[in-house]
Amino acid sequence: MYPEKLELLIAGEWCQGSEGKSEAVLNPATEEEIARVPHASAADLDRAIESSQEGFKVWKATPAAQRQQVMEKAARLMEERHEQMAKTLTMEMGKPIAESRIEVQFAIDVTRWYAEEGKRAYGRVIPSRVPGVRQMMIKEPVGPSCAFVAWNFPANNAIRKIAGALGAGCSMLIKPSEETPGTAVAIARAFQDAGLPPGVLNVVFGVPDDVSRHVLGSWVHRKLSFTGSIPVGKHLQKLAADTLKRCTMELGGHAPVIVFDDADLDSAMDMMAGFKFRNAGQVCISPTRFYVQENVYKPFVAGFVERAKALKVGNGLDDSSTMGPLIADRRLDVMETFVSDAKDHGGKIETGGQRLTNQGYFYAPTVISDVPDSAKIMSDEPFGPLAPMTPFKTFDEVVERANSLPFGLASYVFTKDGAKAAMIEDLLESGMVGVNHPMVSTPESPFGGINESGYGSEGGIEGLDAFLRTKFVTEKDV
User: Is 146 a catalytic residue?
Assistant: First the structure.
């Protein structure tokens, strides 16, 4: 049974939409309807916007130490509800329960990190050129904030925005994905039960474009944070421009993996196979273009295929499953298009390449070798369990190929040569680079891309600063 009751959170109260509209939430492993998510009406959104403004006044005036106490209590409540939240996440998203547990723990860790870092939103005193004058730079909350987030990480995507805003002293109106609503609702319940004042956090659902146009059309919110696709990010940025809202955009990627011939191949294969098929490849920082130096290319492909075949694909609630389904039927069609195009361009299907069952949105872990750069999968993000591989000869060649796309979110490199690693770290056009391991996302480090992968960072002091503005005060003795 689905653990979470789905409601809107407006002005500190849980409610259904005033017009009674809703949509089904499906379990992607079974295709069964597990709940209905309510839609906010225009009147509901207006109440949420007004509430966000009032909540901001209260939360901004709350000392940072007291804000930390509320956020810490919310983290403890999430710890108590950890298993229930993980089950909710798996049922609506499909990922293995082990991955869901890790994601919920990440949400707890992010909450704690921002709670503490909010006490360190330091300004500075600037020496004056004039006697008797004091000059100060002050950091203050940017104002009521809003966020729209994708379905692939229901906890991570939501908490980075909620905790970042609250840690800085901002209120937050968030619209999680209607496909994976329960996890965000569970997070919000923890904050409400921890004593968060009414209006500091509002949660709404609805037709995405209708909600975003209504919310972004208001002057109340001064900050937008978005996680999702590049086309939608560009659309939202245009809407936000009319009211000159500050934006953080965490958009799509197409991460290259560069394996040099001096790399520890077994380590590279172990880490990249696990990372590639995590969440069935539905990860913005998923490794998606494998460039392997030609004299180790064949053993790397063979070893990667072995690891892909060893995965157990199944319902995420089964503890033995190591990969779950895709989020929806539409993603199966996308996988088939990528695979067919790769084959047409000369790629060889080493394993996988097909839908697995008639029930649930399962697609086989797939490895495709000898994929030319002209294939669609080498230029468009697949966002699924597909691993295209191609050989390269020289350092300069692979850098040029890795940097050939307009995306720049994450990149991965494997080499034992420290000088080579340092050189390619400087040359890769990417917001995050993992060398000999893939862990580019932690609560205390900046997470974000460049170019068409977006701008701004979540996580770290940079993520807190995204919700702060600078004020200069100069004061003369009289």
Answer: no
What is the band of 358 on the pLDDT scale with cuts at 50, 70, 90? confident
How many structural domains are present in the chain? 2
Q: What's the rounded mean pLDDT across residues 148-165?
A: 98
Per residue, what are the HEC states of 445-458?
Answer: CCECCCHHHEECCE
d(C-alpha 323, C-alpha 299), whole Å: 24
With 0-12 / 13-18 / 19 or more C-beta atoms within 10 angstroms meaning exposed / middle / buried, residue 434 is: buried
Q: Which residue has the tokens 């990249």?
A: 272
N-to-C CA span, the chain: 70
Annotated active-site residue in 92, 117, 250, 452:
250
CATH of the domain at 119: 3.40.605.10
- pTM value is 0.96
- Structure token pair of residue 355: 């839908």
Q: Has residue 20 been placed in a domain? A: yes
Decide if 15 is catalytic.
no
In the predicted structure, residue 357 carries a pLDDT above the cut 90: no
Do 264 and 238 share a structural domain?
A: no
Q: Looking at the structure, do residues 388 and 458 belong to the same domain, yes or no?
A: no
Query: Residue 70: in which H helix or E strand, if any?
Result: helix 64-80
367 shares its domain with 430 = yes
Domain residues for the domain of 293 are 255-435
Q: Which residues pair with 472 in a beta bridge?
A: 137
Catalytic site residue from 146, 170, 247, 284? 284
Question: Does the structure show a pLDDT above 90 at 16?
Answer: yes
